[in-house]
């Protein structure tokens, strides 16, 4: 039997993306098709989404949806089966989906994403011309009220699941919004949507969804404790029997060095010669010394405290002392952007940085760097290290969350048994990172060992095949769940 799933998210690749959430939401439907799961994705009607939508059919209308009329439009775009919340008063805004031109969150974000959840509930309750789904799958705080709306309606409803992609972003808003959100007064309590005197969108989903998932097994364990639980650890411990971790995958058609049009030449584990051309192109793009034998470390990341990029700045003298080079692509905190610009200016030919994000350049870094550094203080899953494995850039990662779950440390025993795929370090400190960088330099000096690590890395299955099986099993368990 085919399971029908409504996936609810604030972004979806390749139509609108600010981070890994979009990649996951965009890739899962195709992977789940092989598991006899049909996914329709509900997203806001941003300009870029509406512009891409084809075969459009109106399936529902709202006389008033948090400030104005709105429609639900079914259609397709870039191979995705979509339902779009066409509400111009909420979503007809260019640029970043969350932040205005002044760099601040849109003040009506609470209503914008409540509208997304309200639309999900209407579909889930069978009030549109679309077939009612078996499961509603909410992603992150922006969709966190969907399980709440379905819960408080009463009567038959789909099964619900919420996935936490990053617990640090929770969607907490003033309690006075409760009436405007259309939630009953009794929902404002510890067993409902209330969270420290506010309305907590993510908290609501975690409290009221039938099942909770996050994007790696280790992160699912970490967030049950106070250090990583971000104030929600008590709730997550209480619902531990409903919480599981399912590791992410990547789209291995988009990320495929053997058929990547963004690279100077294709290559594979069996025929790796083309990789040298990417390395040369990378060194040229970042103004590094043309040195085919150099250990080039790469970084593709948001520049933030979470990502540990301040630690890498502190460890830079150690990295340079090994004779290595560094390239960095990213944007974020002003102090870190300034720090990496200064480092590039102070070490021409050895350090290069480009502030911003460029999808094609991200592919070139994965293909041209010898190793990729991911020193995160916490990391729910991480996708960049999965791309690195696929492209043969040896990951150097902190041993947290999904990084710990996806990288096999190349310690002496692992090397002897031919199973290492990268380097892990803990704790997440400058000293431990420096040790990992020195260890990488030592391994790189042994060409045979490094070649073996690269072969192991590129042989790792980073596709959605296994994760899709886990999600499909979860959906089958939830299908037919009715409200108590």
Please provide a written account of the structure.
With 484 residues, this protein is an alpha/beta fold. It has two domains: 3-249 and 465-478, Rossmann fold (3-Layer(aba) Sandwich), CATH 3.40.50; 257-459, Rossmann fold. Helices cover 37% and strands 20% of the residues. It contains 18 helices and 18 strands. The protein has helices spanning 20-33, 47-52, 88-91, 109-124, 145-153, 201-208, 217-222, 233-238, 275-285, 309-321, 334-346, 359-368, 384-391, 401-406, 412-416, 430-444, 447-459, 465-478, and strands spanning 3-8, 37-44, 54-62, 70-77, 80-86, 135-139, 159-164, 172-173, 194-195, 198-200, 211-214, 243-245, 296-303, 325-332, 351-355, 371-374, 394-398, 423-425. The strands form three sheets. Strands 3-4-5-2-1-6-7-11-12 form a nine-stranded mixed sheet, with helices on both faces. The chain has a six-stranded parallel sheet with strand order 15-14-13-16-17-18, sandwiched between helices. The protein has a three-stranded antiparallel sheet with strand order 8-10-9. It starts with a strand and ends in a 6-residue tail after the last helix. One of its GO terms (cellular component) is cytosol. It catalyses: [(1->4)-alpha-D-glucosyl](n) + ADP-alpha-D-glucose = [(1->4)-alpha-D-glucosyl](n+1) + ADP + H(+). It comes from Nitrospirillum iridis. Pathway: Glycan biosynthesis; glycogen biosynthesis.
The CATH class of the largest domain turns out to be: Alpha Beta
In whole angstroms, how far apart are the ends?
25 Å
Radius of gyration: 23 Å
Low-confidence stretches: none
Q: Total number of β-strand segments?
A: 18
Q: Which sheet architecture does the biggest sheet show?
A: 9 strands, mixed
Number of helices: 18
As an assembly, this protein is single chain
Derived from helix and strand composition plus strand pairing, the structural class reads alpha/beta
Q: Which band does the percent of strand residues land in?
A: 15-25%
Number of discrete domains: 2
In spatial order, strands of the major sheet run 3-4-5-2-1-6-7-11-12
Q: What is the mean predicted local confidence, pLDDT?
A: 96
EC number: 2.4.1.21
Organism: Nitrospirillum iridis
Domain Glycosyl transferase family: 289-428
Function: Synthesizes alpha-1,4-glucan chains using ADP-glucose.
């Amino acid at each position: 039997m085919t399971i029908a799933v409504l996936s609810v998210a604030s972004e979806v690749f390749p139509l609108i993306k600010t981070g890994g959430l979009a990649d996951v939401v965009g890739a899962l439907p195709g992977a789940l098709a092989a598991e006899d799961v049909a996914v329709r994705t509900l997203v806001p009607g941003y300009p870029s989404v509406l512009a891409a939508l084809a075969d459009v059919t109106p399936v529902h209308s709202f006389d008033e949806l948090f400030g104005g009329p709105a429609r639900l439009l079914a259609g397709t775009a870039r191979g995705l089966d979509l339902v779009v919340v066409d509400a111009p008063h909420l979503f007809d805004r260019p640029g970043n989906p969350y932040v205005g031109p002044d760099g601040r969150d849109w003040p009506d974000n609470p209503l914008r994403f409540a509208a997304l959840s309200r639309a999900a509930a209407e579909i889930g309750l069978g009030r549109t011309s679309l077939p009612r789904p078996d499961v509603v799958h909410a992603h992150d705080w922006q969709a966190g009220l969907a399980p709440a709306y379905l819960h408080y309606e009463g009567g038959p409803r789909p099964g619900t699941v919420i996935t936490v992609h990053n617990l640090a972003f929770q969607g907490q808003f003033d309690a006075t919004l409760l009436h405007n959100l259309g939630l009953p007064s009794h929902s404002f309590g510890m067993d409902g949507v209330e969270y420290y005197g506010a309305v907590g969108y993510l908290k609501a989903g975690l409290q009221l969804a039938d099942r909770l998932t996050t994007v790696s097994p280790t992160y699912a364990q970490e967030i049950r404790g106070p250090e990583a639980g971000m104030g929600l650890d008590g709730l997550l411990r209480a619902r531990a029997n409903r919480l599981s971790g399912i590791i992410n995958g990547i789209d291995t058609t988009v990320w495929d060095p053997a058929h990547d049009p963004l690279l100077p030449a294709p290559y594979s584990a069996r025929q790796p010669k083309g990789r040298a051309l990417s390395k040369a192109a990378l060194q040229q793009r970042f103004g590094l010394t043309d040195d085919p034998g150099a250990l080039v470390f790469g970084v593709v990341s948001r520049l933030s405290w979470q990502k540990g990029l301040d630690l890498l700045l502190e460890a830079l003298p150690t990295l340079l002392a090994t004779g290595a080079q560094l390239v960095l692509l990213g944007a974020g905190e002003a102090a870190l952007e300034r720090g990496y610009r200064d480092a590039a200016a102070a070490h021409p030919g050895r350090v290069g940085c480009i502030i911003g994000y460029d999808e094609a350049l991200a592919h070139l870094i994965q293909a041209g760097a010898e190793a990729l550094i991911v020193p995160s203080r916490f990391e729910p899953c991480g996708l960049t290290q999965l791309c690195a494995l696929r492209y043969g850039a040896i990951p150097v990662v902190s041993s947290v969350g999904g990084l710990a779950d996806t990288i096999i440390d190349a310690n002496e025993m692992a090397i002897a048994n031919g199973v290492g795929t990268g380097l892990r370090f803990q704790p997440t400190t400058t000293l431990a990172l420096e040790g990992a960088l020195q260890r990488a330099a030592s391994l790189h000096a042994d060409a045979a060992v490094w070649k073996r690590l690269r072969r192991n890395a590129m042989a790792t299955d980073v596709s959605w095949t296994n994760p899709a099986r886990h999600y499909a099993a979860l959906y089958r368990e939830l299908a037919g769940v009715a409200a108590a």
